[in-house]
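Title: Prediction job returns without error message
Component: structure pipeline
Severity: low
Priority: P3
Assignee: unassigned

Description:
Job completed but the reporter wants confirmation the result is attached to the right record. Sequence as submitted:
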Amino acid sequence: MEKESRSKPISIEPKNVFGLRTDILGNVHFTVKQEIIYPVAGVLAIHNFSTNKQKFLRFPENYHPERIVISPDRKFIAVSEKSADNKSLINIYEIATLRKRKTLQLPPDCPNTQIGNICFTFDSRGIAVLSVEPDAFLSIFSFDKNESLIIGRASNSSQQGQATILSCNPSDATIVAVGGYCMLKIMNKTDKGFGQIGTIKGDNLQVTSITWLTSEALAAGTAETELIIVESGELKFKLRGDEIERIDLSAETESELSSTPSGSELNKDNRDVLCLTQFDKGFLYSIHNAVHVFEKTSNYTFIKKSVIRIPVTLYDEQSYKIMNVAVNAEQDTIVVATKHSQIYIGMLFVPETLKISELVFRHLGESLHVSGIVGLSVCSWKPIIMTASKDLTIRLWNYQSMKVELVKKFQIEIGVIALHPSGFFAAVGFIDLLRLMQIQLDDLKVTKAFNFPNCTQLKFSNLGHLLAAAHGKIISLICIFTFEVVQTLKGHNGTILSLSWSTDDAILASGGNDGAIYKWNVVTGERMEEILRELLNEKQRACTRMEALLGLSSKAISPREAKLKLEKAVADKDELEARHREQVAKLQEVVKSLSNENQNLRSEIVAMNRKNNGR
């Protein structure tokens, strides 16, 4: 007996994933190989921007990642995660293999097992964990054979301070700096857990970030644009983060340090000194949309070498606030992540040949949407995709080159989009009107507007001569050559959720949240068939697909009915073919005209560039 042949299971793997999760702290890092690590959707992407290839590490199901940190040797990634039942844990992965190496949890005897912050020790052989308030505890897990654990209290609910951030000492794995609201202290291992070094407590300080400049000196940023220097557990300097030009740790007083008055007053929301980061050649921190970089010129001296700023362009100023920073292993490149979903890249230091002190960040990769995507349409004849977002922008993507070819910002909310099969037009449903738009080299130009507000579905026919627009309970069929509404289809009692054309564009199917699915004769506007599914819930209705209806009805029909349907289809065939031939000819003329127009535009741009270069 022959064995039944089994078809191979079909699997779909993502090739490239575009986006950035801003709800995860520490959302950008450099690997040893100059790859960028960042979270997007349900994965951690390891992206080589030179080859534009990505590897993916999937986050565990039913767990929400909260923070990502990389080890000093850049071999491991630690991800703190929280489950649906509020259980916190830390998963440690090896970057080279993407394999999980350890899973850590705070011991049950810890008063609060919820994880607030994590940091690798300087030798990458341990990890410090700070539990959340109240009564935050500090723990240090060692990855040695004994897997030892040190645990002690970091704050006390009877006192004012709240511990939220930490930084491990660069030469002693048992010393950790802890900061937060009215909190700044240095803790070290004792026989009973942890004790404090020095007398500094951080009273009246709102510490926003901390890092070690040396094994003895700690730098802390505050919410009032201050840079605090602590040495051996004692406060040494309190400086203005946006004005300081030179730091000398051997100086006795602040008057011996160099500073330049800031030329502008900072907004109260833009005063935080964030992302304090130490590296071998110096240290840096961010204030709003700028990174201040200091170069280490001696064991005690740091001089500001550059300020790198993100230009404020499409969105409101607050969305450009820098939230995370990473420096590459060669210490010549910096990447930053902002409040909106975008990664930027820049040179770390100003080259000696340039006589400037300020640099500008540029996008790393493509310009991304900063809010939810509300519409997506794929072109039939070109390798392009159009997306629309709640951020009021439309983007045109080339899925072969993996590049964004066009970005257009609007002032009106976008509801739905559809790309014409030729790729030269698009239909965009705004909350006020439906607009047909011509796709140009760097713009979307309105060709015609229709008084159809809040369209829920748009669908071009396969040949591109008709556009089906669902608005309210009505479907309008629009001829894109004459801009006439050739048919108005009525029958739904609820919002229309889906539209689909038959292969020959003779039939349109529609489905709504009223549980009804209809088939329409495009030429006559008649309703050919209907299926009512009263038991569908809202979610099932929204997911209803129309394609299956176009081939077969869900109801059995008699041979006589089938014969009548076939005779009617044959009778309509000649009329449909004549209309299609005429409309396709018009479409070809329009496409040819647009191609010529685009070629002329390209020639003009080339000529202008040559003229400018000649100057």
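Comment from assignee: result matches the submitted record. The CA atoms of residues 393 and 409 lie 4 Å apart.
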